[in-house]
Write a structure and sequence with these properties.
The protein is mainly alpha-helical and 152 residues long. The chain is 73% helix and 11% strand.
């Protein structure tokens, strides 16, 4: 049965999103735990990766937790060698946080862990199914970017 209507598309896309998120998060959580990290710590590391050197207040706001909790979380990341903390040159009371090479390596590994099952999925598809999937995903990616740009 071919699903061509809008509601069918939305339902199918929702099912795909749920499947991909489940598999991706399962691998991500296992990777974080395997490295002795919480999801909050991984979230803080990813925030610093995406934003570059930033202030502790930025991380507090991103995580939505208290200053004290964020400070403890960052203390552990500093001890583990994933971030370095320095004084803010404009406000010596404030701290700046930057990702270390080890932190970058850790995050690259988390992406690889989340995407590792893509190969298994590709292997489970026929050549024709892969070609049709590529075309559909390229179209969805293009349209998503167009919608995103239009909404800015």
């Amino acid at each position: 049965m071919k699903i061509t209507n809008r509601n069918g598309f939305i339902a199918s896309l929702g099912a795909w999103n749920e499947a991909i998120m489940l598999e991706s998060m399962r691998a991500f959580i296992a990777y974080a735990r395997g490295h002795g990290l919480s999801l909050s710590q991984m979230g803080a590391l990813d925030y610093v990766r995406r934003n570059g050197e930033c202030g502790m207040a930025d991380i507090v706001e991103h995580l939505g937790v208290s200053n004290a909790a964020t400070s403890q979380l960052m203390d552990r990341l500093v001890r583990q060698g994933f971030v370095e903390r320095t004084e803010d040159p404009e406000d010596r009371r404030a701290k700046r946080v930057a990702l270390t090479r080890e932190g970058e390596r850790l995050l690259r590994g988390s992406v690889a862990a989340r995407e590792r099952w893509f190969g298994d999925l590709a292997d489970a598809l026929s050549e024709d199914e892969r070609e049709r999937s590529i075309a559909a995903l390229e179209l969805l990616t293009r349209r998503t970017r167009e919608l995103s740009e239009a909404s800015r």
